[in-house]
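anyone seen this seq b4? input:
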Amino acid sequence: MPGSVPAEVQGLVGRIVIEIVNPIIGVIFAAALVYFLWGLFMFIVNAGNEAKRGEYKQHMLWGLIGLVVMISAYALIEVGLRTFGVENRDMPQGLPIRL
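predicted toks r here
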């Protein structure tokens, strides 16, 4: 049923996703990546302290979970947009996997 949504609504939803939702996802993704890398760095720095290593393992785990959640959110939004025929021009083209 793609294309059955009025063009004005498609344009509005597309602009909201491109201008608001995608940047928010990008910022949260970047924060999760920094959190993971910080945990990794501190894990290496505290190689001799088992208690600290356990703490920073948790930081790395939560950073990875954050990355997966943000990638999943982006994919779900893309699936929803394509279901209703809204084109997301912010999505990189030429990906080997098409949703």
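Residues 90 and 97 are 16 Å apart (CA to CA). Residues 7-45 form the longest helix (39 residues). kinda curious what u guys think
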